[in-house]
Amino acid sequence: MKINNGYVDEPIPQGTDIIKEIERLKKEKNAIILAHYYTVPEVQDIADFIGDSLALSQKAAETDADMIIFAGVHFMGETAKILSPGKKVIVPDLNAGCSLSESCNPEDFAKFIESNPGYTVISYVNTSAGVKALTDIVCTSSNAVKIVDSLPREEKIIFGPDRNLGNYIKSVTGRENMLIWDGACHVHEEFSLEKILELKKENPDAKILAHPECKKTILLVADYVGSTAALLEFANKDDAVKYIVVTESGILHQMMKENPDKIFIPAPPIDSTCGCNDCIFMKLINLKKIYNSLKYKAPEIHIDEELRVRAEKSIRRMLEMS
Ligand code: 13P
Ligand code: SF4
Questions:
Q1: Are the beta carbons of 40 and 286 closer than 8 angstroms?
Q2: Distance of CA 199 to the CA centre of its chain
Q3: Which of 160, 210, 232, 305 has the smallest CB count inside 10 Å?
Q4: Strands 31-36 and 67-71, bridge-based pairing
Q5: Cβ–Cβ contacts within 10 Å for residue 192, how many?
Q6: Residue 51 C-alpha to ligand 1 middle, in angstroms?
Q7: Cα 98 to middle of ligand 2, angstroms
Q8: Cα(213) to centroid of ligand 1, in Å?
Q9: Mean of the per-residue pLDDT values for the chain?
Q10: Cβ distance 131 to 106 under 8 Å?
């Protein structure tokens, strides 16, 4: 078996029905496939469970499968491994990183914490195990406001690494004593307010749905702000028929599937060839890589045990508070 550049690089035998084979291998190996809403439609369609970052980490913590195939990015697989060290956790392409996680390295974050003593450290789940190990409470976009709100108002908070989510939490909770790390996700930073307003002009009946990783100027024009799962739930329950969706394009697949009579328009970034905004990392996961990872049980996520134990505390605290 060849692992080339972070994934199993083996040809699929001719005539293989890849979807049937994935189903068979899953049963044979007692494996579960967890997929984030940002993965490509065909990956979402073969997953046992699709969710946002919070739901996926909850599922990873409770599953009794022996092997977790994480169709998502590296920090998601790492979080699953931290919670389930006895399981084999596989991310089908280890190149599936995250620009937001990359914007905060543990060494610099440790210095930031050291220079601001007395602060409670809250980190977004989009971070490495090294950053989680420095953190008091992990959060995701669906529970960040709730977690911050549950702390006494006088408690001083360091929030990292997403400046847009941090500023959004600060404005919703009215907290003054929050220090925010200056990181961002390249996908959500790139949405163009001008193009969104143009779309709104062309579609005045459309509601704007935005993820809190977007810039403040965009959140201000949104009709609803929430995590991917919250945006989907809003679209499912709301009575409008048209939406401009300002988050990664993968979520449109579930939105359209669950609401065949509604219209979902992807918001474009500043420069776009496809008219929508894709996370290049999420889109690295495809059926061939999933098939090969099931077949060869690779490439696995490994974490140093001492680091895992330190990182686990902050994730468990989030799960208890969610
Ligand atoms: P949620 O899954 O919390 O909506 O976050 C989106 C994201 O950017 C995941 O990488
Ligand atoms: Fe990271 Fe942004 Fe991709 Fe999410 S969409 S995985 S935050 S780069």
A1: yes
A2: 26
A3: 305
A4: parallel
A5: 18
A6: 9
A7: 5
A8: 8
A9: 96
A10: yes
Phi-psi region of 237 (alpha: psi -120 to 50; beta: other; left: phi over 0): alpha
pLDDT in tens, 229-246: 999 999 999 999 999 999
- Of ligand 1's atoms, which has the minimum distance to the CA of residue 228? 4
Q: For residue 265, what are the β-bridge partners?
A: 244
Q: What is the pLDDT of residues 159-171, one digit of tens each?
A: 999 999 999 999 9
Whether pTM exceeds 0.85: yes
**What pLDDT, on the 0 to 100 scale, is given for residue 170?**
96
- Which tokens sit at 288? 């061939």
3-state secondary structure of 7: strand
The two beta strands, 178-180 and 67-71, are unpaired
Q: Sheet harboring 242-246: ordered strands across?
A: 224-225, 207-210, 242-246, 263-266
- Let me know the angle formed at the C-alpha of 124 by 229 and 220, rounded to the nearest 5 degrees: 60
Our answer on whether the CB atom of 165 is closer than 6 Å to any ligand 2 atom is: no
89: Cβ contacts below 8 Å, ≥ 6 apart? 60, 67, 68, 70, 77, 80, 81, 300, 301
* Structural element, H or E, at residue 23: helix 18-28
Q: How far apart, in whole angstroms, are the C-alpha atoms of residue 316 and residue 201?
A: 45
CA distances 299 to 7, 63, 69, 139, 179, Å, are 6, 20, 10, 27, 37
Retrieve residue 80's tokens. Answer: 């699953």
- Any atom of ligand 2 within 6 Å of the Cβ of 98: yes
The span from the CA of 233 to the CA of 258, in Å, is: 10
Q: Is 281 in the pocket of ligand 2 (CB under 6 A)?
A: yes
